[in-house]
Amino acid sequence: MSLDNFIEFRNVGFAYGSRPILENLDLAVPRGKLVAVMGGSGSGKTTLLRLISGQLRPNVGQVRVDGRDVAGMSRDELYRHRRRMGMLFQFGALFTDLNVEDNVAFPLREHTRLPDSMIRDLVTMKLEAVGLRGTQPLMPAELSGGMARRVALARAIALDPQLMLYDEPFTGLDPISLGVIALLIKKLNDALGTTAVMVTHDVHKSLEIVDHVLFLAAGKVVAQGSPDEVRRSDAPWVQQFINGEADGPVHFTYPAGRSLAADLGLQGDGHA
Ligand SMILES: Nc1ncnc2c1ncn2[C@@H]1O[C@H](COP(=O)(O)OP(=O)(O)OP(=O)(O)O)[C@@H](O)[C@H]1O
Ligand SMILES: [Mg+2]
Q1: What are the two backbone dihedrals, phi and then psi, of residue 164, each rounded to the nearest 5 degrees?
Q2: Per-residue pLDDT averaged across 133-145, rounded?
Q3: Average pLDDT for residues 144-173, to the nearest whole number?
């Protein structure tokens, strides 16, 4: 494995029961990079994140993170693996009965034995990093959707993760909050040198912030490149994705009879 790759999938196959989701999947995420994964609903994006976090194990092949085979990790190693990882999921809700401070402090109390005064200082730093200084006493119900997402982000970075996994971090946000979260994700990645994998449907916003894009379809990476390469790509269905065309020159037939555009959930209204 190349030392420069923080995550590597080698010939990974994964099925839920008898239903294959990923097949012969190879991918690499270079250390310190922010990589977007795009693909239709049900194409296996969340499954891919769960393979990285070790919640799932491949049936075939290897998932390597920081040079280590995730499937070969003992319980203790898996615990340490997850401790080095931050996750922000679409429905990764805050604990509604805890205020902002206790929400962000939660992983610190769970995983460290730091004195409470230090935990409070760390919480303050994390909240400052997401632009929410002074919100410690607020309850989740008192936050806007965008603020709640930023608190969840502060909680996700509480333990200074080496790896961040984002699953649709923009969903349900208004365009301004979406822009703020996107910029934060980018800034945190640059500032902390974190490697990050972000599943998203938002092609345009992610092309602005990520280093690399992977397109997932039919269980494999079917196209990839830098944002510029993706924008310049004349691969018809990459264009279909970017331009949000419901019907393009290429009809992918997986599973039988369904078009890729339909599977990508594209509306054909000119917006992805
Ligand atoms: N625990 C499970 N048991 C059985 N099938 C599952 C399970 N989780 C997901 N699936 C199926 O596996 C496929 C891939 O699921 P996954 O959640 O990875 O898709 P996705 O690309 O994240 O989709 P979306 O964009 O809708 O979130 C889907 O068809 C889904 O129905
Ligand atoms: Mg998903």
Answers
A1: -115, 135
A2: 95
A3: 93
220-225 and 212-217 beta bridge pairing? antiparallel
Query: Could you tell me if the CB of 41 is within 6 A of ligand 1?
Result: yes
Q: What's at 160, amino acid-wise?
A: D
| Strand arrangement of the beta sheet that strand 19-30 belongs to | 19-30, 5-16, 60-65, 68-69
Looking at the CA of residue 44, tell me the nearest atom of ligand 1. Answer: 18
Higher pLDDT, 263 or 56: 56
Q: Measuring from atom 7 of ligand 1, which residue has the nearest CA?
A: 16
CB 25 within 8 A of CB 221: yes
pTM, full prediction:
0.87
Alpha carbon nearest to ligand 1 atom 3, residue:
16
Residue nearest to ligand 1 atom 30, measured at CA:
42
Q: Would you say 52 and 165 are in contact if contact means Cβ atoms under 8 Å apart? A: yes
